[in-house]
Amino acid sequence: MSSTQQTILLIEDELPIRRFLRTSLIGNGYHLVEAVTGREGVQMTASVRPDCIILDLGLPDMDGLEVVRALRGWIQTPIIVLTARGQEQDKIALLDAGTDDYLTKPFSVGELLARIRAALRHSSQVRPELRDLPFQVGQLRVDLAMRQVFIGDDEVHLTPIEYRLLSILVRHAGKVVTQHQLLREVWGPEYADAVHYVRVYMQHLRHKLEADPARPAYFITEPGVGYRLRID
Amino acid sequence: MQQPQEDCYTSYNVPMNYTWATLIVVICTGVAAMLHPFFNISDLALVYLPGIVLVASRFGRGPSVLASCLSVLALNFFFTQPYFTLFVENPRVVLTLVVILLVALVISTLTTRTHEQTDAAQRAAVQVETERLRNSLLSSVSHDLRTPLAGVTGALSSTLEGWQMLDDSTRIDLIQNAYDESERLSRLLTNVLEMTRLEAGGLTVRKEWQPMEEVVGAALTRLETRLRDRLISVNLPPDLPLVPLDAVLIEQVFLNLLENALKYTPPAAQISISAVAVGAPQPSAIQVTVADHGLGLRPGDERLIFEKFNRGTQPSGGGTGLGLTICQGIVRVHGGQIWAERRPEGGAAFIFTLPISGVPPRVELEPEPAPCGEEDLA
């Protein structure tokens, strides 16, 4: 970790939520700036250049999707949105528009910090020297440089598709990856309607890499949205 | 009612209704043609009456008037002398035809009216029932939501006001209590919202072909912390077919069933989840069982517990009594069934089916890499 404090921009109109996030984020060593409206959030992004943006979807002046589009036009800063349960289609639309991740209310501080870490790690992973480090979580170790996968000390042999699927999840470790993104990147655009392929191959991966495939420890399903490779 | 009395037929495809009316008259004419050598004109007219009743009850007034007129024209054209003209020689036959037309029109009017009245009565009954449910929902929900809320407020106000006097462990206890109660509040709200959506018919089902294992896994992951100390056995055969289902909704079914098991069974009791394919050689449905090894249901509760706000005769576990009703609603919109059984060896089993309709998608699998002993991983 670098010694410079990382800045988080929180765009949220509800005071109680801002208050609770303020305590937890500052307490965890982040520098926090706050915006109350979408417009203010976009302006502050330009002036403070945050390392990560937390965006609430229920803003009074702008639709969440609008804010994301307004920001994605010119910055690559990770964006995490705060949403409500049961809006899977909205989540997918937000992820497609360039949101990095989402959190469903109510959430715990622990979950939020994990999402922020994953998002920051991903944005810093653009540096090639970090990308080549093997990925490790629990018993699972993935060496993208050597194209090797281990559970404990044992190497696991994957088919080319399984490996491609795994490597995308590893590259986005900790973040949600939508089914369609996986489908596009592994199978290509001509398979756009064959989401079941992703599910069937995720099942294969779990059977090869999870101790109990029905209670996955690494490959977490986000129902209706996609998958997430756990990082801690 | 403020809304205009909506004719139940207007929602149908109107030109199609007239086509059906014509088609039914053609069929009646066919039957009449076969009977023609043996019967006279007024007997043949009787052949058309069931057709007109059918049209009136299924397609409404307009098509039934058309059917009545067409029937009389057909009778006239095919079965009165001179044949194959609309000219009628005999005045008695003209009278017969006019009477038949009148009878047909009266029948069609009566039938459509009866049909509309039944419909209106049904709508009124549904409205009364909805009203009743809404009232009981409000009273039940406000009570059930206030209870955990009171817990949160109570714990937090004691902490705030008594901060100086309390030691650390008591403070933590109180805050933990507030946290647990707020989680319970959140679960209750989820159920209430889900129920409202089910009832309003606003539930959109996005069925996609899914492996059952993934849905079970998602539910178990979500309940991870609360299931941590529980013995859970999952038994899903490796050749279980893909099932068309809405993963978000079916996950909710599992969540509600598992939460019930947590609520109503002692902490040491095992919970088991299993599924089998039903129907051979092509599976027509999948049958899922969530069973616990608790005290089981009391006789007679098997049905009761699926009713709204009904917790059976068990002592309250602190829910809204909506969980199973929601499960039932979700399973039904998938075209399946759900029921409860008392297990002979003790404990309760909740079983639901999901039909496998349509053609399962093909998955072309790639060959496995050279085997290298990955089987001994698990």
Quick take:
The complex is a heterodimer of chains A (232) and B (378). Chain A has 232 residues and is α/β, with parallel strands linked by helices.
Can you characterise this structure?
The complex is a heterodimer of chains A (232) and B (378). Chain A has 232 residues and is an alpha/beta fold. Chain A folds into 2 domains: 7-124, Rossmann fold, CATH 3.40.50.2300; 128-229, Orthogonal Bundle (Arc Repressor Mutant, subunit A), CATH 1.10.10.10. Chain A has 9 helices and 12 strands. Chain A has helices at 15-27, 38-48, 64-72, 88-96, 109-124, 128-131, 160-171, 179-187, 195-209; strands spanning 7-11, 31-35, 52-56, 79-83, 101-104, 135-137, 140-143, 148-151, 154-155, 176-178, 219-222, 226-229. Chain A has a 5-stranded parallel sheet, with helices on both faces. A 4-stranded antiparallel sheet of chain A has the order 6-7-8-9, with no helix packed on it. The longest helix of chain A is centred in the middle third of the chain and has 16 residues, at 109-124. Chain A is globular. The two termini of chain A are 16 Å apart. The model of chain A has no long low-confidence stretch (mean pLDDT 89). Chain B has 378 residues and is of the alpha+beta class. Chain B has 3 domains: 14-125, no CATH class; 134-199, Signal transduction histidine kinase, dimerisation/phosphotransfer (DHp) domain (Helix Hairpins, Orthogonal Bundle), CATH 1.10.287; 208-355, Histidine kinase-like ATPase, C-terminal domain (Heat Shock Protein 90). Chain B is built from 10 helices and 7 strands. In chain B, the strands form 2 sheets. In chain B, strands 2-4-5-7-6 form a 5-stranded mixed sheet. In chain B, β4 (271-278) and β5 (285-292) form a beta hairpin. In chain B, α1 (14-35) runs antiparallel to α2, α2 (41-59) packs antiparallel against α3 (61-79) and α8 packs antiparallel against α10 (323-333). The model of chain B is unreliable at 1-11 and 373-378 (pLDDT under 50). The A-B interface holds A 85-86, 88, 106, 151, 154-161, 194-197, 199-200, 202-203, 206, 208-209, 211-216, 220-224 and B 182-183, 186, 190, 193-194, 197, 206, 208-211, 213-218, 220-221, 232, 234, 236, 242, 246-248, 251, 273, 361, 363, 365-374, 376-378.
